[in-house]
Every structure is written in structure tokens, then in C-alpha cells.
Amino acid sequence: MEENQKPNHEKLDEGIDFGVSRLTPEKIEAAINAVFNRETGARFRAYVETCIHCGLCADACHFYLSRDKDPRFSPAGKVKQTVWPMLKAKGKVDAEMIRQAARIAHTECNLCKRCAIYCPFGIDIAYLMSMVRRVIHKLGATPLYLQDTAHSHAATMNQMWVKGDEWIDTLQWQEEEARAEFPSLRIPLEVEGADIMYSVIAPEPKFQAQLIYQMAAIMHTAGVRWTMPATMGWDNSDMAMFSGDNEIMGRIKRAHFDTAARLRVKRIVMGECGHAFRSVYDMGNRWLGWARPPIPIVHAIEFYYELLKSGRLRIARKYEKPVTLHDPCNVSRGAGLHEMARYVADQICEQVVEMHPNREYNYCCAAGGGVINCGPPFKNTRVLGNKIKAEQLFDAKSRGAQTMIAPCHNCHSGLHDIVHHYEVGLEIKFFGDIIYECMEKE
Amino acid sequence: MHALYEWVAGPLTWVAFAVFVIGLVFRLVQVLVMVRKTEPFIFTYMSWKFSLRSIGRWLVPFATLRWRTSPVMTVATFAFHLCLLVTPVFVLSHIVLWDEAWGVQWWALPDAVADVMTVVVIAGCLFFAGRRIVRREVRFLTDASDYFLLALTAAPFVTGFLAYHQVTQGAGMTIAHMISGQVLLAAIPFTRLRHMLLGWLTRAYMGSEFGGVRRARDY
């Protein structure tokens, strides 16, 4: 329990520690009051003033459940350690408090909103935590790795410093590879008036190019009129959304939507990513003043659902190993795609073993919400902080599951670390991996 | 003593009800004006259908995941809140006062039932207080204000119970009962007891978000 109360001199994170070292009481007060008094409003006040301190949110949180029910990891407990003192002191808190707030809001909360469905009043604690992150951002004390990602977004409009020519090169490389298997396959660039613009997150061209290959194979086989942009705006990810840098978040989303508008496509289809989806239907669109995405956006799960349901894509032989399905927060609790995900899983796999809890109630992967993007300094925080997930996976495995489908990049990477650390022994796949493997080709 | 009784039962009651009603109306207007000024997008997402779906679910014991996973708390909180709201309105001695003052009457609870319901409210306060002491996750969130609110809530019921059973001589306990009830009413708009009002709004907003945007259950 005490390990969490790190002594003041101990290093937390280069970005946080350096940022905090430059703080003055005046800067802290100004940033807190700017965010809490001017950037928030009725919602923030109502959430704080309605909370009756009942603690019913605690059992929702994977960090709390995994840390022997240490109350400091409960959702309201995190609010108590961050928002309450900031409000009570009207911003007059010390730098150490900011340092601890950065740790809590950035690395011990995934903004997964499971607690929002545990609170009888529907208090959105993830929103409160994101406002704390906004304060931390204004104070320049964001964790180093996450800030680097936000810088990459600002400079290149993608998450991973992928340069313009590298992007096109990667697509052409994957096209060339795929033409060995599908001789007439193209990855169409800049096709104005195509039905679909396909967008991905930057880790795909950076180090998971096979995912682009697979989607190209699926598009080709299903006969979809699709295109990808050759300009910036191809990256749908948005880590600035999680670093509290709303201004950059908005720029990234605008570039993405603008690119689709320039290509005059009917819809945007995005790959198997959760947070990118959140950024277009929930946060980025609202920052830009759109109640809904200005161009219809379809997550890969829904896209696969359409292709399978309409018969445009047929499965030659179902995936044989029993699978279990992890519902990512941003596509199930966040966007209600869990039943479509089950339809897809049933269509492509012989047997689906449910993990419990599932659907909206599923436990978070502990990687999302920008936590995995805080990098190596906090890997243990999220892996040890999600023992409950390992137990949930062991249970599914004990009922036969051998493969886990995780249709989200953050979940995928986070679950990989959990499966590895706790030696769960489940293979992890995207829907696309299995569809590509099992579909009828040509 | 009689003059004091007259004063508490008369003007002070008016003041208490006025503060309660005007205070809550003020809070409601305040929050709506603030939404309009700072976050008008909230109105864009609000949906009667999904607000009522969410509120309806949460008003039924065991109809939400959270109510099902905390059965003791569920029974306690529903019994407590039901008795807390129903007893003062339907207890016979209150109706007599309304009748004497304004000549209005309505159905009254049998005294024995009202007595039991009063005990339920007091027991509920003790349960919540005990929970704050025993459960780590609740203790961590608890400060003096939480016990103060429980005491504030229990006081009119404890004094009412004692006055009804005439444990003490004279009108002292009745006056204490009235004053504690008036303080409780007047405190609602200015303490976290205002969850009585705001709780519906936050629930409705979350219900609308989950139903309309997120297409998922929030219960």
C-alpha cells in the first residue's frame, strides 16, 4: 500500500519532474483556476457537488480491484486526491501535489468510464480526470512519452513522426507485397469520389504494416471502392486528446475530416482502434463544434459486420481455435458495437467463449486513455494494476479459450503485456488477422 | 414555551419552506443558466427518452448492475430514501397541521407504520455512518461533513420519534423536532443534500450520452 506514496525526491517521470521543477505557486493557481473556473462549467460543478461519497464507484475500477482494494485507486478516491484539494484551496496547492496529480490522472486512470455506469448519479469521473490532465498540460508537466506523442501530432499530424514520403512508401511497399498474393490488388491513393477513405493509426505504417496489407486484401476481395490519402490527415489517432492538449486534438481531427472532405468520400472507415474512434464521435468532434462526426465514420468492427452480413466477404473455413472476445471501452461502452462484434466473431470463428464481465461491463485493458503512451516508466503501473484482467482471462481460458480477439490497438498492446506477465497463455489477434486468414480469396 | 412553539410552528416554518423551495429553484435555474452559458452542447445531447430510461432503471431496486452487485446497500438505500421522503408527507400529525393551517387533508399513514418508517430512516443513517467507518473505500472519502449531513438528516426523525412517544415532558421535544426539520429543509439547497435535485440531472445527462451517443447501457 505504501509503495504508492513515493517520497518527494524519488523520480517519477522525466516530463512530470522537469515540468514540476519549474512551477511557481502563481503558475499553479492560474492554471487550476483557468481550467476549473473558465473551461469547465455546470457539468463539472454538478459532478463534484452531487457526489455523496458513497464509494459505490470503487468496484468498477480495475486498478482498485487489482491493488487489493486500496481506496486510493478507487475512482472517487482519485478525485479526492486531485480535484478536491485543488478546488478547496482555490488553486493554491504546492508543486508536489501537482506531481502526484499528474501520476494519478495520467497513469492510474484509463478514462474507460466503467465507473460512470457504477455511479447511481452517473457522475463522469473520467471527465474529471481529463480536466486534471488539462491542468497538468497547462503547467507543462505531462509525462514525457505522452508529450512526445503530442509533439509528433503537432509537427507531423501523425502520432509517430512518420514523414510524408515514408507514409506513401509504406503503402506502396504493402501494395507490392500483396500483389504477389492478389495480382490485381491496389492500395488506391487520392481517389476523389471513392466510397470509402480508409484511415489508420500511425503505429500501422510504423511497425505493423501487415495490418495495412490485410485490410487491402479485405477491401480488394470485397470489391470496395476505397482510397487512402497521400497527404497528412491519414492518421486518425489522437493522443493530444489524452494529454489535455485540446487545441492540438482539434487540429488533428480537422485535418482528418478535411482530408476526407477533399477526397469527397461518402464515409471514413477506420482500423481496429478504440481511442481514435472516441476522438471522432466523442471528443474531437465536440471541440470542433460538431455534435456528430461531419462525415459518417465507421469502425472496422461495423465495416466487417456489413461485409459479412451482406455476403460481400465470405469465410472459406472458420477459425478453429476457441476464441474469447475483449470489448474495448471505446467501441463497446463507448459506441455500442459489442453485438456487431459478436456477430463478426460468430461468423469467422468456430467457437466464442465469453469472458465475464463482458460487453459494456468489460474490464479495461489498463493501456488505453494514454496510459500505455506514458511509456516504460509506467509499464508496471498498468500491468500490476490489472491483475483482475489476468484473472478474467484465466477464467475464459479455463473454459476453453485459446485465442483472444482485441479489436483495439491500445487494448492489444496492453493485453499482450498482461498475458505475458501473468503467463496467461492466450494468443491475441485482431478481427482483421482472422478474417484475412479465413476468408475466401478471389 | 407556548410563544416559542407558536413562533417555530408559524414564521419559522414559512422561512424554512421558503428557503427550501426558493433555494432549489435558484439552484436549478443557476445550473441551467450555467449550462447555457458555458456548455450549451449539453442541451444538444439531452434526450427525454434516454434520460427517462436511465432514471427509470436506477429507480428500481436490482434493475442495474450496481444495485445487483451491492444488495445490502441497495436494500438499505431504497428503504432509507423511500421512508425519508414518504414519512414526513403522510404522517398523521403533519397532516393535522396542514389541515389546521390551510384546511387541506390527504390520506395518512397508520401511526404504527409511520413509526416503523421513522425507525428505518434512523437505522439507515446509522447504517450509512457505520459503512463510512467500516468500509475502507468509503472511509477514505469521508470527512466531517458527511457525518454532519447524516446527523442533520437523522435529527428530525429521532426527535419526532421521541416526541411522538412522549419520552420527555412538555413541548420541548416537539419544538426540537420542528427546528431540526426546518434546518434540514433549509440546508438541502446549500449542502451536498442537493443531490436531491442535481442527481436527477446528472443521471439524465449520463443516460442521454449512453443512449444517444454511445448506444450502450449505463445501468
From TrEMBL, chain A:
<keyword id="KW-0249">Electron transport</keyword>
<dbReference type="InterPro" id="IPR017900">
    <property type="entry name" value="4Fe4S_Fe_S_CS"/>
</dbReference>
<protein>
    <submittedName>
        <fullName>(Fe-S)-binding protein</fullName>
    </submittedName>
</protein>
<dbReference type="GO" id="GO:0016491">
    <property type="term" value="F:oxidoreductase activity"/>
</dbReference>
<dbReference type="InterPro" id="IPR004017">
    <property type="entry name" value="Cys_rich_dom"/>
</dbReference>
<dbReference type="InterPro" id="IPR017896">
    <property type="entry name" value="4Fe4S_Fe-S-bd"/>
</dbReference>
<keyword id="KW-0004">4Fe-4S</keyword>
<keyword id="KW-0411">Iron-sulfur</keyword>
<dbReference type="GO" id="GO:0046872">
    <property type="term" value="F:metal ion binding"/>
</dbReference>
<keyword id="KW-0813">Transport</keyword>
<feature type="domain" description="4Fe-4S ferredoxin-type">
    <location>
        <begin position="42"/>
        <end position="70"/>
    </location>
</feature>
<keyword id="KW-0479">Metal-binding</keyword>
<dbReference type="GO" id="GO:0051539">
    <property type="term" value="F:4 iron, 4 sulfur cluster binding"/>
</dbReference>
<dbReference type="InterPro" id="IPR009051">
    <property type="entry name" value="Helical_ferredxn"/>
</dbReference>
<dbReference type="Pfam" id="PF02754">
    <property type="entry name" value="CCG"/>
</dbReference>
<keyword id="KW-0408">Iron</keyword>
<dbReference type="Pfam" id="PF13183">
    <property type="entry name" value="Fer4_8"/>
</dbReference>
UniProtKB/TrEMBL annotation, chain B:
<protein>
    <submittedName>
        <fullName>Respiratory nitrate reductase subunit gamma</fullName>
    </submittedName>
</protein>
<dbReference type="InterPro" id="IPR036197">
    <property type="entry name" value="NarG-like_sf"/>
</dbReference>
<keyword id="KW-0472">Membrane</keyword>
<feature type="transmembrane region" description="Helical">
    <location>
        <begin position="116"/>
        <end position="134"/>
    </location>
</feature>
<feature type="transmembrane region" description="Helical">
    <location>
        <begin position="12"/>
        <end position="35"/>
    </location>
</feature>
<feature type="transmembrane region" description="Helical">
    <location>
        <begin position="146"/>
        <end position="164"/>
    </location>
</feature>
<keyword id="KW-0812">Transmembrane</keyword>
<feature type="transmembrane region" description="Helical">
    <location>
        <begin position="170"/>
        <end position="190"/>
    </location>
</feature>
<feature type="transmembrane region" description="Helical">
    <location>
        <begin position="75"/>
        <end position="96"/>
    </location>
</feature>
<keyword id="KW-1133">Transmembrane helix</keyword>
